[in-house]
Write a structure and sequence with these properties.
alpha+beta; Pdz3 Domain; four-stranded antiparallel sheet; 12 strands; 53% helix; elongated
Length: 385
């Protein structure tokens, strides 16, 4: 019965989060595919289809260049199909290409130089990064940033901070040689450093002190009931008005901060991935579409601005994931093109076909795995509640 109640709770979360999730995903996917499309057009490649979503077409129109723009029934991604492609994954149609005239080959993706093909493929992830920078820049320029000084207000008993010797009033200057400018900088590093020693340099009454602390892995529950196992130092931020300011930025300053924030998201993504590969993080923390849908609903309940901020983070994540060297993803295409550039000729159609089949299987297995994680976590959350 508890399992059924958990599934009911899961269903309600899915209904609440679905509209926000679809809004975020549609915008992010559109810009990703627009990157491919724009550079392809600049290179003289004809784009046969620009689709947001997969499956049957719901609505669409054909522009004067012959591109079919459409919204499809399954809104979980999208694609651009270049002239000469066999499918939505941009697998070349060798038979069709062989029968093309010279004029047709010039407007196909396969007929371009390897460097142009690389530029077209890389443009998708690049567009995601640009979108994130634009969003962060806009948010910093319009709303500024609330900054809390990295000062320790309280040290919890039996915590990693107490064991390391931190005291109330300490001002943390750097962690692992990285300058700390706000309390959120501390959290960003500590949460991804569970059971890993970190070097802390702090100011205590004008004296510069170096300490080593090892954040403890703890299960934390956020305000929406989501559970996360993260590194915890065991300190609280200062609540003194003197330590909390709202900074305002000019557009150029906001642009620089937008780039920095995008870089921070990329860095945290690779840090987590590295810890996952090394076994220092558990795979049950990986989330998929269902968890993102729930998170979208949670964030949307705070404010539309918070949802837009989340959109920037997801845009970076999609851009980074697409660069993984797995056939079917953009990174897999780039890998094949890089090999072609070194060899002076492309891999055989058979090798590429096997590569795409393996890549597709890996992606399907990953989707099934993260989706099962999502369902298990959501059911566990609602049954325990």
């Amino acid at each position: 019965m508890a399992f059924v109640d958990g599934l009911a709770g899961f269903g309600s979360w899915l209904v609440i989060g679905a509209p926000a999730f679809l809004f975020v995903l549609t915008v992010v996917v559109f810009f990703h595919e627009l990157g491919h499309f724009w550079v392809a057009r600049r290179c003289g490649v004809t784009v046969d289809v620009f689709s947001v979503g997969f499956g049957p077409e719901l609505i669409g129109r054909t522009d004067r260049h012959g591109t079919r723009w459409k919204l499809a029934a399954i809104p979980l991604g999208g694609f651009v199909k270049f002239h000469g492609d066999d499918n939505a994954a941009s697998v070349p149609d060798a038979e069709a290409i062989a029968q093309m005239s010279e004029a047709e080959r010039k407007i196909s993706l396969a007929g371009q130089s390897v460097w142009r093909r690389m530029a077209i493929v890389a443009a998708g992830p690049a567009a995601n990064i640009i979108l994130a920078i634009a969003i962060f820049t806009g948010l910093f320029a319009i709303y500024g940033q609330s900054v809390t000084a990295p000062r320790v207000e309280l040290v919890l008993e039996d915590s990693a901070a107490e064991a390391a010797g931190l005291e109330p009033g300490d001002l943390i200057l750097s962690i692992n040689d990285r300058d700390i400018e706000s309390f959120s900088d501390i959290q960003a590093i500590v949460t991804l450093s569970a059971d890993t020693p970190i070097e802390i340099v702090l100011d205590r009454g004008g004296d510069r002190i170096a300490l080593t602390a090892t954040p403890k892995r703890q299960e934390m529950t956020d305000p929406f009931g989501n559970r996360h196992r993260v590194g915890v130092l065991g300190i609280s931020r200062s609540i003194s008005p003197d330590d909390i300011i709202v900074q305002r930025y000019s557009v150029p300053e906001a642009f620089v901060l937008g780039i920095e924030e995008t870089y921070n998201v990329v860095e945290r993504s690779f840090t987590y991935l590295g810890r996952l590969i090394s076994g220092r993080e558990s795979t049950d923390q990986l989330g998929g579409p269902i968890r993102i849908a729930k998170a979208s609903g949670d964030v949307a309940s705070i404010s539309f601005v918070a949802l837009i901020n989340m959109m920037a983070i997801i845009s970076v994540s999609i851009g980074v994931i697409n660069l993984f060297p797995i056939p079917v993803l953009d990174g897999g295409h780039l890998l094949f093109y890089a090999i072609e550039a070194v060899r002076g000729r492309p891999l055989s159609a058979r090798v590429q076909d096997y590569g795409f089949r393996i890549g597709f299987a890996l992606i399907v297995m990953l989707i099934l795995f993260v989706t099962s994680n999502d369902i298990i976590n959501l059911v566990a959350q609602h049954t325990s509640g």
